[in-house]
Automatic annotation (TrEMBL):
<dbReference type="GO" id="GO:0003700">
    <property type="term" value="F:DNA-binding transcription factor activity"/>
</dbReference>
<dbReference type="InterPro" id="IPR036390">
    <property type="entry name" value="WH_DNA-bd_sf"/>
</dbReference>
<dbReference type="GO" id="GO:0005829">
    <property type="term" value="C:cytosol"/>
</dbReference>
<keyword id="KW-0805">Transcription regulation</keyword>
<dbReference type="GO" id="GO:0003677">
    <property type="term" value="F:DNA binding"/>
</dbReference>
<dbReference type="Pfam" id="PF13545">
    <property type="entry name" value="HTH_Crp_2"/>
</dbReference>
<keyword id="KW-0010">Activator</keyword>
<keyword id="KW-0804">Transcription</keyword>
<dbReference type="InterPro" id="IPR000595">
    <property type="entry name" value="cNMP-bd_dom"/>
</dbReference>
<keyword id="KW-0238">DNA-binding</keyword>
<dbReference type="InterPro" id="IPR014710">
    <property type="entry name" value="RmlC-like_jellyroll"/>
</dbReference>
<protein>
    <submittedName>
        <fullName>Crp/Fnr family transcriptional regulator</fullName>
    </submittedName>
</protein>
<dbReference type="InterPro" id="IPR018490">
    <property type="entry name" value="cNMP-bd_dom_sf"/>
</dbReference>
<dbReference type="InterPro" id="IPR050397">
    <property type="entry name" value="Env_Response_Regulators"/>
</dbReference>
<dbReference type="InterPro" id="IPR012318">
    <property type="entry name" value="HTH_CRP"/>
</dbReference>
<feature type="domain" description="HTH crp-type">
    <location>
        <begin position="163"/>
        <end position="236"/>
    </location>
</feature>
<feature type="domain" description="Cyclic nucleotide-binding">
    <location>
        <begin position="48"/>
        <end position="149"/>
    </location>
</feature>
């Protein structure tokens, strides 16, 4: 798997699903060295090349094993009886999800769909479970990073409960821009083609209310929006969120 931060310890992102009341997974990071141990220990795997809008998993078809996102982006979502979808996670390159004996990694009960052409490496559970038993430092690393993410989750819950809709939209877009963005003239372009409905699903609001809020933020120069593209002014957003 390819790392990113040249000159520093390279990391890959790992999603841990804890079944919390918000129905959202936690994302932790493991070192590229740990990923190397995983790669060296695996003797059997499958690589899938998938076009955009492919369904990789449904709630009734959950694979026992780990899947590594080699390229592309995946969306995890749940559906309800009224037909509405609720996006719970978006993974890009180096993301990991799946189900093994020790951890449930971010996919239980969800649909997994490609948002763009993607490549996914799947490792069966029987290949990975013995690895964690043999290399206990991997489990300890996961738990250590998870503790940090639990503290971050407290902040997320506070924002989503006590902020007004404007605050929720800004906070969530800022979080996305920290993970998936490119800098452009003081703005961060979120590198995910988000519709107003998808953003509304993420923060538990209606599409109409989110659309009005986005228009308001655009008029104030905090956001630049176009068809499925959102740019957020970093300084202005952070000043308001402070």
């Amino acid at each position: 798997m390819r790392g990113r931060n040249s000159g520093h310890t390279k990391k890959a992102c790992l999603v841990i699903w804890l079944g919390d009341s918000w129905g959202r997974p936690f994302v932790i990071c493991i070192t590229e060295q740990a990923v190397g141990v995983i790669q060296q220990s695996v003797t059997r795997s499958h690589t899938y090349t998938l076009p955009k809008n492919s369904i990789l998993q449904t709630p009734d078809d959950e694979k026992r094993g780990l899947s590594f996102v080699i390229a592309g982006k995946l969306r995890f979502y749940k559906t309800y009886s009224d037909g509405k979808q609720h996006t719970v996670c978006i993974l890009s390159e180096d993301g990991i999800f799946g189900e093994i004996e020790t951890f449930s990694l971010g996919a239980r009960g969800s649909y997994v769909e490609t948002m763009e052409d993607s490549i996914v490496l799947f490792i069966p559970a029987e290949q990975f479970d013995p690895l964690l038993r043999k290399h206990s430092e991997l489990s300890l690393l996961f738990l250590s990073e998870l503790s940090k993410r639990l503290r971050e989750q407290d902040q997320l819950v506070e924002k989503l409960v006590f902020q007004d809709l404007r605050g929720k939209v800004l906070y969530f877009l800022n979080r996305l821009s920290n993970k998936f963005s490119t800098e452009e003239n003081g703005y961060r372009k979120i590198d995910i083609p988000l519709t107003h409905q998808e953003l509304a699903d993420m923060i538990g609001a209606t599409r109409e209310a989110v659309s009005l809020t986005l228009k308001e933020l655009s008029n104030e120069g905090i956001l630049l929006t176009s068809r499925r593209t959102i740019r957020i002014h970093t300084e202005k957003a952070l000043n308001e969120l402070a």
